[in-house]
Specification:
Aminopeptidase, six-stranded mixed sheet, about 280 residues, globular, binds zinc ion
């Protein structure tokens, strides 16, 4: 049984390319939680784990960056891991799958352990030679589809049993017993802090607020930045929220009634603004 202690790990998508969404879950957020827990538990058993998550704005540039970051790590005894969630039109599709290029035995072992920890069906190891991440890292690699984001009970298990689930994966990969608790405790509530990230849309500078505590983009600004979750080259193009395109510029929030951000809506946004206040809850005033 081959085990690995030189690891890289990433959440398969990014804040700007969320991946699959359903039941209020967004693939990137869930995958990032697994990735971060894996890094923490992996280090706790003495492995080195380099985070290769990319926050690029298209899926193809995310994949290129993930592979580049992984290949920058010494390849001797290295394993590259990518965390994803599955999705299917059939809401009853359920279970764990681990995709591999040539690591059938490892993929099967991780899938079985993870399925057992989550109490979900073990769909097993699936060979995928067409996936960029698996085909292009210069070390063994696996892509873990934790559960189906399209299945509400899969997601209940995946979120409530995360710590124990990751523990089973760490033990399968490293061969070391993890001392992590199998129960997932809720993180302590912290004050909402945001910082502002900058990108461009139609030649204009657009700002996105990032919520440090939630480690996610403030909802409204995320909505503004995303188009859909296809894993393809998609240029940034804003979506409206209640008919408005909302931009946080430096310190104030601006509304536009057109997607080219030329028709500015001249009304100061206040906390009690019913139309949009629910979308603004994560943004500092
Ligand atoms: Zn994915």
């Amino acid at each position: 049984m081959t085990t690995y202690k030189n690891l890289t790990s990433n959440a398969g998508h990014s804040q700007l390319v969320e991946g699959a969404t359903n039941h209020g879950y967004e693939e990137h957020d869930e995958a990032l939680a697994y990735n971060n827990e894996f890094i923490k538990q992996g280090k706790a058993v003495g492995a080195t784990v380099v985070n290769t998550t990319s926050e690029a704005s298209t899926q193809s540039s995310i994949l290129v960056e993930q592979v580049k970051k992984a290949n920058a790590v010494n390849k001797a005894g290295r394993l590259d891991v990518s965390w994803h969630f599955n999705s299917a039109a059939d809401k009853s599709a359920t279970g764990v799958e681990v995709l591999y290029y040539d690591q059938k035995e490892l993929a099967a072992r991780v899938s079985a352990a993870l399925a057992k920890a989550l109490g979900l069906r073990d769909r097993g190891a699936k060979q995928r030679k067409d996936l960029y991440f698996l085909a292009n890292t210069n070390a063994p690699a696996i892509l873990i589809e934790v559960a189906f984001i399209s299945n509400a009970s899969d997601m209940k298990a995946a979120t409530s049993k995360r710590s124990g689930a990751v523990k089973s994966v760490v033990e399968s990969i490293t061969g070391k017993k993890s001392t992590a608790s199998t129960s997932t405790s809720k993180p302590a509530k912290k004050g909402v802090k945001t910082n502002v990230h900058q990108t461009e849309h139609s030649g204009k500078v657009v700002y996105f607020a990032y919520d440090n505590a939630k480690q996610s983009f403030a909802k409204v600004l995320y909505k503004l930045s995303t188009v859909n979750s296809d894993y393809d080259e998609i240029p940034l193009f804003p979506k409206s929220v209640n008919g408005y395109y909302i931009v946080q510029a430096n310190s104030d929030i601006q509304l536009y009634s057109d997607s080219d951000l030329t028709k500015k809506y001249n009304r100061k946004i206040t906390k009690g603004d019913q139309a949009i206040s629910k979308y603004l809850k994560h943004i500092n005033k």
